[in-house]
Amino acid sequence: MNGSRLLLAATALGAVAAFFVVGVTGDRVEATAPARPVVVATEAIAGGSRALASALTVSNWADPSAPPPADSLAAIKLVEGRIAVAPINPGRVIRDSDFYPAGSTHPGLLPMTAGMRAYTATINDLDRVAGFAGPGSTVDVMLSATRNVPQPFSRMVLTGVRVLAVKSDPPPADPKTAPIKGPVPSMVTFELTQEQAEQLDLARNIGDLTVVIRGEGIADTATPESRGARIVDLMGAPPKVEQAPPPEPIVVIRQVRKTETPIEEIRGGRIIQNKSLD
After folding, report:
1. Which of 21, 34, 180, 199 has the most Cβ atoms closer than 10 angstroms to its Cβ?
2. Residue 99 has what pLDDT?
3. Alpha carbon 243 to chain centroid distance?
4. For the chain, which residues make up each domain, given as ranges?
5. How far apart are the first and last CA of the chain?
6. pLDDT tens for residues 149-182?
7. Which residue, among 94, 87, 90, has the nearest Cα to 42 in the 3D structure?
8. CA-CA distance, 57 to 52, in Å (whole number)?
């Protein structure tokens, strides 16, 4: 009996000792593991836009059992000012491959998705783009139809399309007529399906194209659910002009005078005149 009690006591003491050993060893491992700072996005960064320091922060890698991504960056200065290859969501650990090389001013054409087409269109109204749409941005394309149409209208013809590249021209020479500083976008290359490319090619032949910047939380739709806007939607229907009633017909009544026509009769060798009324 005493032997059983001694065995149980020894087992309990062994378990307690093992617990303390594991705890002390774990503390030593955590103490010896170096902290790994990583740059994390605090705000959404649009593809094709430059990273701002205000949209980034530095945090320690939270999982000591697994290393951070091999190309993660540890300092904001390594990211600030670089152009994002694709949109970056808040909370993502920033990687070097998420951005074009430092010093890049024009990333050129982004890689295309398999099965898609690259279609380049001229943007006539420069103020509508204003330089905000860059490679990697998701935009809508609006048509302002004024040529070869019975009634002018504006309508979204494509929604949720990806920008592959933007061609920029030098700013206008006269700042009074066009107060734009820096390069001015003039052509945009979109990533489209075959059907979208055909629609856009037809659209640009009847009007001007506008790039519309999309906000967050807009669902992508293959076909825009809008009939568009027409002049009557802005100005309202023209007032109805009441037409004057047609004039009443004029009835002319003529009075016919009766005339007397003499009639001669011969009676007994004598001529007798009688009056007859016509």
Report:
1. 199
2. 84
3. 46
4. 1-33, 36-106, 117-235
5. 165
6. 788 888 888 988 888 887 766 656 665 555 555 5
7. 90
8. 10
Q: Cβ contacts of residue 232 below 8 Å, gap of 6+?
A: none
H or E element in which residue 68 lies? none
Residues of the chain with pLDDT under 70: 1-34, 104-109, 123-132, 168-185, 216-225, 231-239, 254-278
Contacts of residue 42, Cβ cutoff 8 Å, sequence gap at least 6: 55, 56, 57, 90
For residues 136 and 113, the answer to whether their CB atoms sit within 8 Å is no
Alpha helix positions (H), the chain: 2-32, 194-203, 231-235
Which residue from 188, 181, 137 is spatially nearest to 165, judged by alpha carbons? 188
- The DSSP bridge pattern shows strands 138-145 and 117-122 to be unpaired
Residue 150: exposure state from Cβ atoms within 10 A (0-12, 13-18, ≥19): exposed
Which residues lie closer than 8 Å to 106 by C-beta, 6 or more apart? 168
Q: What is the DSSP letter of 202?
A: H
pLDDT of res. 127: 46
Q: Using an 8 Å Cβ cutoff, are 101 and 79 in contact? A: no
Q: Which residues contact 138 (CB under 8 A, 6 or more apart)?
A: 87, 160, 161, 162, 163, 214
The torsion region of residue 234 among left (phi > 0), alpha (psi -120 to 50) and beta comes to alpha
CATH of 36-106, one of 3.40.50.2300, 3.30.420.10, 3.90.1210.10, 3.40.50.1220: 3.90.1210.10
- Determine if residue 254 is left, alpha or beta; phi over 0 gives left, psi from -120 to 50 gives alpha, anything else beta: beta
